[in-house]
Structure formats: C-alpha cells, structure tokens
Amino acid sequence: MSTIRIILAIALCPSFAFSQVGFERYQVEDGLTQNSILALLQDGSGYIWIGTEDGLNRFDGYSFKRFFQHGNDSVGLYNDYIWSLLEAKDGKIWIGHSNGISYFDPVSGTFKNVVIDENLLIISSYEDSSGNLWFGSAGKGLLRLNPSGEEVSRLVNHSPPVAPFDREGWALASNNILCITGLKGKIIMGTRGAGLFEVKDGKIQRYAEGKLEPFLATNEIWSILSNDEGKVFLGTAKGLGIANIDFSNLKIFNRKNTEGALGFDRIARLCFDKKDGLWVATYGGGLHHFDFRTGRFWNSRHNEADPRGLANDLAFTLLMDRNDNLWVGTWSGGLHKMSKYAPYIQTRKATSGLADYVLGMDVAHDSVFVAAYADGVFFGRGTEAPLPEGAPVFYALPTPPGIYVLDVDLGARYLWMALDGQGVLYTDKKLLKNPSWKSIRRIKGNPNSLNNHLVDAIKEDGHGTLWIGTRGSGLKRFFYQQPYGAPGSMHQYNFREGEPHSLSDNYILDIELDKKGYLWVGTANGLNRSYFPVRQDTLMDRFVRYGQGRINTIAISPAGTPYVGTGNGLYKIENENWVGVDGLGKEFVNSITWDHEGNRWVSTNSGVYAAPKGGALRHFSSKDGLQSNEFNSRSVALGNNGMVYFGGVKGLNIIDPQLLHAPVRPSKIVISSVTVNNQDEVGTSKEVVLDHNHRVVTFGFALLDFVNPEANRYAYRLEGFDEDWVPVGPDRRIATYTNLDPGEYTFFVKAVNSEGAGSDGLASIRLVNLPPPWKTWWAYAGYLLMLGTVVFIVLRAIVLRQRMKTKLALDRVELRKLKELDEFKSSFFANISHEFRTPLTLILGQLDEMERKGGGNPLIPSIRNNSKAVLNLVNQLLDLSRVDSGKFALHLATVPAHGFFARLLEPFEVLAHQKKLGFEASLPDEGEIILTDPAILEKVVNNLVSNAIKYNQPGGKVAFSARVSGKTLHMEILDTGIGIEGKDLPFIFDRFYRVEDVAEGTGIGLALAKELVQVHKGSIKVESRKGEVHGLGLNCPVAWRAFLTTCGQRKPWPH
C-alpha cells in the first residue's frame, strides 16, 4: 500500500473546492419576477421573501406569489426595485426600495407606502430593541421611524442634525449606509469609505476608531456578524475581517493573504451555517465557506458544465432558513437553494478527475477503487476526517486500452476487474504504480478457462478463490492459490433443467459471501445459496433457491442477514423465508450497505434511502446534492472513514452518515390561499364569510419546510363536513368544497415533512357559509309569521264559513218559514180577498137594485162609493198575490195611445175639479199605436194619478204627460202635494210602507204599481222634496221585441 500512498501524496491539492456542491435553481422560468436577487428574508410564518430588481416574491416551496408596482395604488407596492427586507416584531414586512420605504401587512394582505422619495434608495434596515426602525440609504444618509412607523427622522452628512439626535453627537461621515446591525446593545452601521458608526445615547459616533485601520480606510462594509464566542465578522469589498468583540486582534482574509485562501475579496453578504462555519457570498467569486475549526476556505464557483451549480459567480445575498437550507441570491443568475444535506453530500465526476458513469467499487484501508466502464479504474484516498476534508481526489489507474470495466474487487493479493466482453483482468496490488496485468479469458477446448468473456460480477473469498459470474454461462470458481484447488484451475456451476439444487439461472448478476461462509449468488431468475459453506476442501455443487426474478444486488447486514435488491423492492432472507422489507414499496433497488452505526443505505432509481436504527425511513434526492436520482447496481462501498460511496449515472456520491443526526425542526403549515368561485381570492385571515352566491371555496396550503417539499405529505379536514382526515400529496395541496349547507365550519390541515417530522401544530381557518336571504333565521321567522297568519286566516275563514253555513242554515229555515208565512199570507189574502169580494159584489148589486127600484135613500151613494173602495183594495191585494205567485201574465194588445189615456184620465179631471185642483194632461198624438197590457197599464195609471190627487191640497195642481219615443212609452206625473222626505224615498215602493205624517193610505198602491211596471218590463222612479213640485216617471217598452219571452197572446185593442 505504500506505493499508493506515495502516488496520492504527490497529487493531493492543498485545499478542497466545493466545485460540485449541488444547488436547486429558481429563475424567471420557475416563477420569479426577475433573476437579480437583492434581498432575502424568512418571515415568522416561514415564507421566503425575495426582493429583485423587478418586484417582490413570496415563496412557499412550491410556487412564487408575485407582487408588482401598482403606481399610485394606496394598497399596492410603490416600487419594484427591492434592496432591503425586514420583518418587524409586529409581523409587518418592511421593504426598502429605490423610491423609499413601504411595508406589507400580512393580516390585510396590502401594502402601505410610508416614505416616498423618487431619489431615495434604501439598501439596509434594522429594528432595535425599542421597536424603532432604522434604514440606511445609498447617498441619502440614515432614516429612523418610530415603532408606529409614522415619525421619520433623517440624518444626512454635512447638514444640520434632526431630532432626536444631539447636535453635539453629529458625526456621520458618509451618506452611504450599507449595513445596520446590533452589537452589544449598540446600533452599528457599516458605510462606504467611512468605516463603522454607532448610535449611542442619542448620538452618532465612530465605532472602534483606530482599531481597524487601515483595513477599513476607503473600504465598503457590506455585512457585520457576531457569534457567541465573542468574535466579530466584517464582510467588506477588501475581504473578510475577523476580530474580537472589542475589535482587537483583527485577522484579515483576502487574496493577498494566502493563509486561508479566500478566493475573491469583494464580499456582499455573510451568513453563519448551523455547524462550525461561515458562508461568504462574494460578488464575482461565487460562494465560499469558512471552517472555524481549520481556519480554511472552500469555494463553489460557476461551472458551465454543471447545471446544478451556481448560475454565475455574482453571489449577492444569503439566507439560512429554519430548516438549515442555505439560499443564495445572485445578480442576474436567480435564486439558489443548497439543501441542509449538501454539506454532507459531495460528488465526483469527469469535471473533477473522475468519470461520470460509475459502476463497481471497493475500499481497502483509506483507498477507494472505482470501476468507470470505458474510462477504466480510478482510485483515491480519503482521511478519517469528515467532509469536506474526507472527500478523496481521484486519479486514473494505468490500464490496457479499450477495456470496459463493470466491477472491481480488491482482494488480499490482487486487484480484480470484471470486463464487459474481455473476461477478467487482474494485477498484484504491489505493482499499482506500474501494473502488470494478467487476464482470465476463454480458451477453446480448455476446461480451466471462461465459457464467455461477458463477466458482470467478481468476488474474492480471501482463501485463494475468485468467484466469477458470467452473462449466460453460469458461475466459475477460479483457484489462484492453495488450499482449495490447483492454482489456475476452475470449476463450473450451471443451471441444469430438472435439477432443483442447481443454479436457478446462468445469468449471474451479483455474488456475495456471508460471515458463515455461505455463498450467495444473484441471477436473472432468483437468489441462490450454497448448500454448505464453501470454506472447505470440496467442490460443492448444490444450491438452495429463493424467490424469482432479477436480483440486482446482494448485501449481508452487520447481523448476518442477507438482503436482496430487486426491480420490485427490497427483500431479506429471514428464517429461510423470502420476506419483503417495508418502506421502499416497488422501488428498483440498485445497491445496499450499512454504515458504521448500523444504519441501512439503499440506492434506487429515485434517489437514496436511509433507514436509521430505530428511526423513520429517510429519502435523499438530487435536490439534496446527489449527482442524480438514478444509480447503478452493485456500485457501493463503505469507506474506513465512515463515508458511504454510491456510484451513479452522473458520477460518484460521497455521503457522510452524520447527516442523519442533522437537527430536524418542525415547520409551520400555513393556509396560503382561499379562493371563491375559482377566481376571487379572499385572503387568509382567521375567518372567511361567504354569501349564498359563493358556491365553490378552495383552500390552498403549504408546509413551509424547504428541505424536500416534494416529499411532504398533507391531510386536511373540514370540521362539520368531513368525517375523517383526507390525505393528499404535495402535488395536490388544495381542498375544494362545493354546495356546502349554510352553517359554520372550521378547516384544518396538518403535514409531515420529508424527514418524518410533523408540522408545528395545525393550520386552521373558520368558514361561515351564510344562507341565502330566503333561508336566514329572520326569513324563517317571517315564514313562521306568514304561516301563522295563513293558519289564522284559514281558521278564521273556517269559523266564518261555519258561521255562515250555520247562518245560511238558519236563514234557510227562516226563509222557508218566511216563505211558508208569505205563502200563507198570500193564500190568506187571496182567500180573504175572495171572501171579501163576493159579499162586496152582492152589496153593490143590491145597491144598484135599490136605486133601480127608486129607493131614494141618501146613504146609497156613500155606501156604494165605500164598497167600491173596499173592492178596489181587495182587487189590489189579489193582484199582489198573483204577482208573488208568478201567475200574473201579460196579455198584450195594440192600443191607440191617445184614446186610451183620454178615457182613463176623464174621471180624474172630474175628481180633481171636485177637490179644487188643477189638472193638466198631455197625451200622445192621434194615431199613435202602442203595444201593452191595457189592464196593467190602466191599474198603474189609476194608482199613481189617484195618489197624486189624494195627497194634494186645494189649489194644488196635478199634471200628467204621456209620449211615445221610439219603442218606449214615457209617462210622467207631477203634483204639488205634501211631498216625501228624503229618508222615506228608498222605501216608498215597499209593501205596506207608510210615511209617518200621512194618515191616509195602506201602503199597497205604489208597491203594486212598481211591481206591475216591472212585470211590464218597465221602470219607475220618484223625485220629491218637501214643499216643492215632485213627480213620478215611468218608462215602458211598447214593442214586440221586449216581450218575446213573456207575452201572452197578441190581440188588438178595441177602438
């Protein structure tokens, strides 16, 4: 081994470069507003804020929420050129930009512009213990805001100081305030070209004056940090300065000072790591790391050939998040994330002296041998120190040209190589400086040679035997020394049809020996184990078979248990049974090993899995620093320094198992968005109220854990709707609900990160889904009121109806009784009228006989008149009875109107003269013919004219007129009698109605007249006022058309 050590000692470099540290890049194509990153901040919730030359961004691990300038919008960002970000104690995000100062209120989701100056570029900010906010500008001095963010004090060089600073304390010598920080209770400012200043007791004065010269003279101080060990770190344009807390014992690191080898002087930002180091962003020199233990720097710079490196060397700002990931903002190169695991994972590939495609490997003492197919074999040496010093530098081993190496095995005496198509190549380990290569090949007809040159696997057992696995020709046992076989001889093992104890297949993929001496052979069709230990003087040819399918790799655990990697997951042989190992599912397993602590490591086609003893399965991917997610089978080794080596398709991975002890911190889970109807974002306050028009609500959420967001797992539940938690992956970080019933709900979400740690509590938001107006409590109260009203109305209607029914029933009874009574009355009047009429007729007849015989009794005329009056009254009663019974039929006849009325009125003229009344009659023209019932018309005229004369006073006047107009007879009777009061007018046509102050009359005449006129299809009305002329008007039809349905027979009136 001394030869190897000499070779490596000559070649090793004095320092190590992080040239192949893996970064995950985020640029405009990934959602950033712009690629020049000027400021970084992680807020209290865990969001990453990114200030660029063109807008502000907020990152949740999956997507960027972008904020742009909104011009004069009072709630929008005033300027997009963001240089400074600060989270105050109240949660507001203060933003320094090229037009002054603004802040973002996370509660309302709006911006407020506090200080606006078109020429004010804010490049630094700080909050002191009292809540005052300090802002440093480029060329405009220092600004201070009180805790409310309202009172502004500005301090500018060479101008009068502004309260609250004492004039005597004015000592600001530069208006370019590049950084502000707190140090030992003081506010310290770094300037351009004027050194350090402090604010103390209301005064500004130089800080550590004289102690840091000439280092700070004409220098730019961009970053100031201090640690718990009492050290101060100054990042400047002339390198890194490290001093004691009182700025004594200054030590400078820059390119002029070869000690420590800082690769570039212009420092933009400093940031502590979570171990024992300092990250240094240099503007033009990439990213540097300073190790406190060794006092040395390592550098990661831009490499065009490495898509996972820095996009350029203009590193401008740094942020170490709460999960220990490092964020690097570059000028014009975008944002870069270095996983917390990157310092534990290093890669080697063609750009660092190794090949990109790494297959087999082996380790002996502190040397690592790597098979790299067409590139031959490489070796390197690592020390016992952890990374990065423990990472070896590799060199190519001299090999014959044109070979293709599939596997390498470092035995007790030889270095063996399995070749693709060329058999086996080997050399004595003592001759590695100038190897003398020998080969094991196929020799036709020679049983002690290979059957073909396609060798995939080799394994030396340490007892003079090399096991050779071929592709299609089975297993060979090559004896290179005693005691088990003659040197140079071979023994063949094959699959034999029908023999269950032969090999299961002739395609050999891996070979392994366990501590008990059993040989394990992986084939294209299952696993085989030798029937008895091979460390004995026998040519055993019996195997026990396990499983089926392709065996990619075999590994023996520290406890002696065989593990098998397949294309369908990880398995082990336990109690002679083929048992699946939980956690990897159907992963394609390439290689397996255990570190010095007994933790299992497995490479797959989707990264590396670690199973810590007693812990949850952990997954690592290219985003954590691995060369790729794809690895090669049987390409694994455990270094004596504790490092785990995995070969992949893009180089070698060197993993420090200490990464399993890196702190795992729970992260906050947030509800990142609430959208309504798939378009309206309503904010993420503690309560969301939706009206009935909002039918769809969607909650977006994110675990603000940036280690491996794609491996985070979520579960959500809407209390009041979901019975159980709903699990979802990182690609489905939303929960949508539609057509929720009105009511109150609470949405909860929780998560588990890629390291198995649960989120820091639950995130929740209250949802109030208001009912439509017609389903509110007051609407239901209205409905209840209306229902009550309706019920009341219905019940009242039912009661009223029942009352009406009862009343109707009573009315029917009463009507029936009245009808019966009326019928009885009519019958009575008819009967009694007939009874009266007969004797009256006899009396009148006897009177006539007495007068005829010459009885000159003076009482006879009076008896006759009274008898006629009684007979007339009886006739009227009979007429009323006939009208009531409907037996009063019309008997129409054509009548000469003039002669008819002249005959009727002649007796009334005599009567009027007797009563000393004037009587006038206006009759129709001679020859006017009318159609009427002469008997009815006569009775009506007699009734009305006799009444007019009866109720008149001597000297009065009665006028009668009759005229035919068209098909109607109009009659009018006027008199100057006593008249009728207005209150009596509606009732004068009622039967038996009598006016109170009139003693005469029976109340039958007018009633009979009206009813006879109605029988004649006519009408009658009266007009009367007390003391005035009053009259009656009648209208009767006198044409056939009016009587077609009611007339009796038509006959002429006798002339």
Describe the structure.
By secondary structure, the chain is of the alpha+beta class. The protein has five domains: 24-340, Methylamine Dehydrogenase, Chain H, CATH 2.130.10.10; 348-661, Methylamine Dehydrogenase, Chain H, CATH 2.130.10; 669-767, Immunoglobulin-like, CATH 2.60.40.10; 777-859; 889-1052, 2-Layer Sandwich (Heat Shock Protein 90), CATH 3.30.565. Helix content is 15%, strand content 37%. It contains six helices and 73 strands. A hairpin with a 6-residue loop joins strand 20 (239-244) and strand 21. Helix 4 packs parallel to helix 5 and helix 5 packs antiparallel against helix 6. The termini are far apart. Residues 1-19, 158-170, 383-390 and 1046-1055 have low confidence and may be disordered.
List keywords for this structure.
1055 residues, elongated, five-stranded mixed beta sheet, Immunoglobulin-like, 15% helix, Methylamine Dehydrogenase, Chain H, 5 domains, alpha+beta, 6 helices
Number of helices: 6
Separation of termini?
Answer: 172 Å
- Identify the CATH class of the largest domain: Mainly Beta
- Look up the CATH topology of the largest domain: Methylamine Dehydrogenase, Chain H
Mean pLDDT: 83
Instruction: Provide the CATH architecture of the largest domain.
Output: 7 Propeller
Mind telling me the C-alpha Rg? Answer: 62 Å
Helix fraction, binned, reads: 10-25%
Largest sheet: 5 strands, mixed
Overall form? elongated
Low-confidence stretches: 1-19, 158-170, 383-390, 1046-1055
